[in-house]
Design goal:
338 residues, alpha+beta, Alpha-Beta Plaits, 8-stranded mixed sheet, 12 helices, 8 strands, 20% strand
Length: 338
């Protein structure tokens, strides 16, 4: 930028045009989605009543783990203008020279460019963290092309909404998506609470695993607790209503659990997705599909994996039954003890 020494007041108006001649925000600033939440004027800065930059950043971005690069850029731009105002005021009061002012402004522009790059990197990292487990994300960033790890002791969970096909014919598509979003968001919270890794959703089905990519000795106990909470918090009395539909949405779930070994990782180069493969996945899916409405159907291998923690749960034997692709299996229904 080419700077021409003019009267201090004129230059002051140039650099603080976003604040207005009286030192307060003008309309161009209030239209900015980030600036509109800032309760501060340039005069506040000069009187040292402005919040510290890091404190301000923390308050503005609190609770927003998906801060966009654009929003972060607005924030950097705001602090650049604050500093410019301070520099212009220093020149106006003759406490600094014109040359020093120009050098300081140029340094600020360079600093703001670096801040924008950091904001972009932060936004990219946040997006990746929402898609991939943190340790898998780091391995990809460090250059690994093919990630496929074997885990000998995991528990796989499948959840399905009973009667979803019929429900889809009774409510509008937007309402249906709203129902799924609310249910799966609750499932996400429960899985995070118990250390399960969400793998994917397929239509109205939800899949998660415990023990990969982070190993847990009590993976089966964690998966059992998560499954019970899903039933208790999201079905039956905990109905989720949809405002625009005339019917009451009563959600019932069918859940399947199995413990065994899997291979987990990322294959291919486009649209990365962390996934798990193996017989344990297929068996957990069979437990769900051969289960009953409002119940948690588990395999004998899962009961064995619970081990000493079985005292916290009650397993009702279902007897032996023929499972497609598996043959005869002894299975149980899981309930909370007591």
């Amino acid at each position: 930028m080419q700077y021409i020494p003019k009267e201090a007041n004129e230059y002051l108006r140039l650099v603080v045009g976003n604040f207005g001649s009286d030192g307060h925000r003008n309309q161009s600033v209030t239209k900015n989605p980030v600036f509109s939440s800032i309760n501060i004027s340039a005069k506040d800065v000069l009187k040292q009543r402005a919040p510290a930059e890091e404190d301000f950043r923390s308050r503005l971005l609190a609770g927003n783990s998906q801060t966009s690069c654009k929003t972060a850029g607005y924030l950097g731009e705001f602090f650049l203008w604050v500093r410019l105002y301070q520099l212009a005021h220093a020149y106006q009061t003759r406490s600094t020279s014109w040359g020093s002012l120009v050098r300081s402004v140029e340094a600020l522009e360079s600093e703001n460019a670096l801040a924008a790059e950091r904001a972009h990197a932060m936004a990219t990292n946040n997006i990746l963290s929402n898609i991939l487990p943190p340790n898998i994300r780091d391995r990809l960033i460090n250059g690994e092309k093919r990630i496929a790890d074997r885990y000998d002791n995991v528990s796989v969970l499948f959840v399905d909404i009973v009667g979803f096909t019929e429900l889809a014919t009774k409510i509008e598509a937007d309402d249906l998506i709203d129902v799924l979003d609310r249910v799966f968001t609750k499932f996400d919270t429960i899985c995070k609470r118990h250390g399960l890794e969400k793998i994917k959703t397929i239509g109205d089905a939800y899949m998660a695993v415990c023990g990969a990519p982070i190993a847990y000795d009590n993976h089966a106990e964690r998966a059992a607790s998560a499954a019970l909470e899903m039933l208790e918090e999201c079905s039956g009395d905990a109905q989720i209503g949809v405002d625009s539909c005339e019917i009451e949405v009563d959600l019932i779930f069918r859940i399947g659990l199995h413990s065994g070994s899997v291979v987990a990782g990322i294959l291919g180069e486009n649209k990365y997705a962390y996934d798990v493969w193996g017989d344990a996945v297929n068996t957990a899916s069979r437990m769900e599909s051969y289960g009953e409405s409002g119940k948690i159907h588990v395999s004998q291998e899962f009961v064995r994996a619970i081990g000493a923690a079985s005292a916290n749960f009650h397993f009702t034997p279902r007897g032996e039954m023929l499972i497609n692709g598996k043959g005869s299996m002894k299975t149980y229904f899981l309930e909370r003890s007591g």
